[in-house]
Design goal:
The complex is a heterodimer of chains A (about 290) and B (about 230). By secondary structure, chain A is an alpha+beta fold. Chain A folds into 2 domains: about 1-50 and about 160-290, no CATH class; about 55-150, Alpha-Beta Plaits, CATH 3.30.70.3040. Chain A has helices at about 1-15, 15-50, 65-75, 90-100, 105-110, 130-140, 155-195, 200-205, 210-250, 265-290; strands at about 55-60, 80-90, 120-125, 145-150. Chain B has about 230 residues and is an alpha/beta fold. Chain B has helices spanning about 50-55, 80-85, 105-115, 120-130, 150-160, 180-195, 205-210; strands at about 10-20, 25-35, 40, 65-70, 70-75, 90, 165-170, 195-200, 215-220, 220-225. In chain B, strands 6-7-8-3-9-10 form a 6-stranded mixed sheet, with helices on both faces. Chain B has a 4-stranded antiparallel sheet with strand order 2-1-4-5, with helices on one face. In chain B, strand 1 and strand 2 form a beta hairpin. In chain B, helix 3 (about 105-115) runs parallel beside helix 5 and helix 5 (about 150-160) packs parallel to helix 6. The chains are: A alpha+beta (about 290), B alpha/beta (about 230). The interface of A and B includes residues 205 and 209 of A.
């Protein structure tokens, strides 16, 4: 193995230009694909953070007596996906409103009666917070006889959820496309490198070299190129991340968007992916080349 | 053509034809080459000399007929077995076919590396064969920095380092001056004396006229039986 590894390194040194082109191609592909990944992961985290804050507010009909309130609460607590139910009396709601509207306090104090309804604040179990699940639960609550209205930020949440789904779809499609494009470019770059060595390979075959003897160093070269390209791509991504996150923290800190880099596990997967792509490009071009 | 009844043939050809599309490169060749025999294959350019040699080491496949090499029928040799077949041969070309990005030493050692020899043995054998070829002091030179004669000496060293049973030489002295050609022939004679079979394709009249070895004359892909030097097969 050491013999083949040495040969791979020597072959790379003999064809420096083409190998550097391959490494740069891999690095750029990894940079672009993992940038999409980084955006995707951070957007996912932002969505999760927002979803964790989702409360369904159910406003109770003024006709509901104490018994009605108890029955409604019991019915809601039994529903799937409900983590907790808190009753907010109309008096409590008015007190909260007064705190929130300190500057327009006179407007509230001039009211001759409390216009706010009693309400229930329903907290969802975090794992159940898909868009469809929230919608279904809200519809169930709405169908209860003592509930007048239900509110959960339908419009913005729905839009955001759709955008996120679209983003997810684009991310996966781009990932697949980048994988195919990268493999195609790498296999062609390696084929060019092989063409520049075709006389050498022909001579090796003449003196009795097996296909494995020719292939193994090239496979090693593919693995090395994949690893180096992947590492360079990730380093470039990390530098970009540092620059962008510093700017976001400076200019958008009020949004409390905590942007973070890829986890160690994801970095490892990207490196393995990159190594695999390097090897696959090599495998495909060699298969074609040695067949001729 | 009568078939030759040689005692110990290492190469046997039976009614071999080779065609490239409509062009007939070899027509109905039947011959035996014995162990430790020295043979010249002669004929004008395009007569089929190089093709005949390429068929022996499965550089190409026959269109018709059969070839046996050291008992193995080449039709039954799978592509996976071809490397093993080729290790029975040492092949020398007029254009040397050395790898320009490898040193003389590396070009020669490649044969032993592909055969899986141990590094210490490779060093010993390569040094010895390059010393015999008079290339010891230039073993670290790259082929482009060597003269034609020196490159051919490296090519001969590469052909014999693996101790093959058969040496196939395609115009080995074709592009060399008489002194270099003499050195190459001496190297081949030495290897022949150690028991190898030598097959040389050449149209070097001087070389053929001075030889006592068997000569096979090819013309238009056929063995020319009217040639007085040809031993009837």
């Amino acid at each position: 193995m050491i013999f083949f590894l040495k040969r791979a390194i020597k072959d790379m040194a003999d064809n420096t230009f083409l190998h550097i082109v391959t490494i740069i191609t891999i690095a750029l592909s990894i940079l672009i694909a993992s940038s999409i990944g980084l955006l995707f992961f951070n957007a996912g985290d932002v969505m999760s953070t927002w979803k964790k804050g989702i409360r369904i507010m159910a406003y109770v009909s003024p006709a509901a007596g104490e018994q009605g309130l108890l029955e409604t609460r019991g019915a809601m607590e039994k529903m799937n996906g409900v983590g907790g139910v808190r009753f907010i009396s109309k008096e409590e709601a008015l007190a909260d409103l007064k705190i929130q509207m300190k500057r327009q306090l006179s407007l509230i104090e001039n009211l001759d009666r409390n216009p706010l309804p009693d309400a229930f604040e329903i907290q969802m179990i975090p794992t159940d917070q898909t868009w469809e699940r929230i919608e279904t639960l809200a519809a169930h609550i709405q169908s209860l006889p003592m509930i007048d209205d239900v509110e959960y930020g339908q419009a913005w949440l729905g839009r955001l959820s759709n955008i996120f789904s679209l983003f997810q779809f684009i991310g996966i499609t781009m990932g697949v496309l980048f994988f195919m494009v990268t493999v195609f470019i790498i296999s062609n770059t390696i084929r060019l490198a092989l063409y520049s060595r075709r006389e050498e390979i022909e001579i090796m075959r003449l003196v009795g070299a097996t296909d494995a003897f020719i292939k193994i160093p090239s496979y090693f070269a593919g693995l090395i190129q994949g690893a180096v390209g992947g590492l360079l791509g990730l380093i470039a991504l990390y530098i970009s991340y540092l620059v962008i996150s510093a700017n976001i923290e400076k200019n958008f800190s009020f949004y409390v968007v905590d942007i973070h880099f890829l986890s160690g596990k994801v970095i490892l997967w990207i490196l393995l992916y990159s190594i695999f792509v390097g090897w696959l490009g090599c495998f495909l071009s060699l298969k074609q080349f040695l067949k001729n | 053509m009568e078939e030759m009844t040689m005692k110990n043939p290492i190469v046997r050809m039976f009614h071999v034809h080779k065609r490239y599309g409509a062009k007939k490169a070899l027509v109905d060749i039947t011959l035996d080459i014995g162990f430790n025999e020295w043979i010249f294959v002669t004929g004008p350019s395009g007569a089929g000399k190089s093709t005949l040699l390429r068929l022996m080491y499965r550089g190409e496949s026959v269109s018709e007929g059969q070839i046996l090499v050291d008992g193995a029928n080449l039709l039954r040799v799978t592509s996976r077995q071809v490397p093993m077949l080729r290790r029975k041969f040492g092949v020398i070309f007029q254009d040397f076919k050395l790898i320009p990005t490898k040193t003389a030493y590396e070009n020669v050692s490649l044969v032993l590396e592909v055969a899986g020899e141990k590094p210490a043995m490779i060093r010993k054998k390569v040094n010895s064969v390059l010393r015999n070829a008079g290339m010891e002091d230039k073993m670290n030179n790259y082929p482009p920095s060597l003269s034609g004669g020196e490159q051919q000496r490296v090519a001969v060293a590469r052909a014999i380092v693996g101790d093959p049973k058969i040496i196939l030489a395609d115009e080995p002295t074709g592009s060399l001056d008489s002194k270099s050609a003499g050195i190459i022939m001496d190297l081949l004679k030495g290897f022949h004396a150690r028991g190898a079979t030598i097959v040389i394709a050449t149209h070097d009249k001087e070389l053929i006229e001075s030889t006592t070895h068997r000569i096979i004359h090819l013309d238009n892909g056929r063995v020319d039986e009217t040639d007085p030097n040809v031993v009837n097969l």
